[in-house]
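Structure ticket #2291
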Amino acid sequence: MTAVALFGAGGKMGVRLAQNLKKSDYEVRHVEVSDAGKARLADEVGVEAVAPEAALHGAEIVILAVPDTVIGQVARKIVPDLAPGTMVVVLDAAAPFAGHLPEREDITYFVTHPCHPPIFNDESTEAGRKDHFGGIAAQQGIVNALMQGPEEHYAMGEAVAKVIYAPVARSYRVTVDQMALLEPGLSETVCASLLVVMREAMDEVVARGVSYDCARDFLLGHMNILGAVIFDEIEGQFSDACNKAIEFGKPALMREDWKSVLEPAEISASIQRIT
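Resolution: structure written out below.
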């Protein structure tokens, strides 16, 4: 049975992973330093935390479910003492991309991140429809990068990723640089920013006299159909009026050089701010 050490097991993300790992064939050792996290781990997962040394002894896989800002600090404490061939799994590309993982050639670094359940899906259960984050009932995609290590370790990393993010519908292999393009580039810098602007626009419409419920229904409904066309969920085309609104609206909302946020230098700067 493969032994897994889960660091940050009592945190928001760690508990999700611990609950899914509990259903697997892995032997899981849970590490949590905070009293609140230990209590959450006991209450929500039904397991007790162990000391880091006990968790790492004989562990073949070490999962770092800790914030980006402390991954480097935690990794520097534990990586020097890991047995050769150990796999360290990181849940976000930020710290690996920024160079916060200690250099050691005889261990594996594997990076994995969820896509989260898509807006357009065929979830047939209420639990699935309400699982917006993923990892509970709704199927989602995942992205994985073998940062360093033998090629056969990719399958081992992907297998544990499919457990911690279950249920998984699709798995994509990328590089760490590509994962950084996806997040923070595509998902946060672009998508989250534009969604915040959309919410601010809705609030402005409400301030001008339209009721909140009306404005929200109208915006989310149009996001549904417009998104279905734009992202190839259905075949369709916009009206001449809509195309004209886009033609004049996009320059008013977006700088001409907005795609520069996806340039390597800006991705690097964004990750440095995060970490």
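Closing remark: The longest helix spans residues 176-207.
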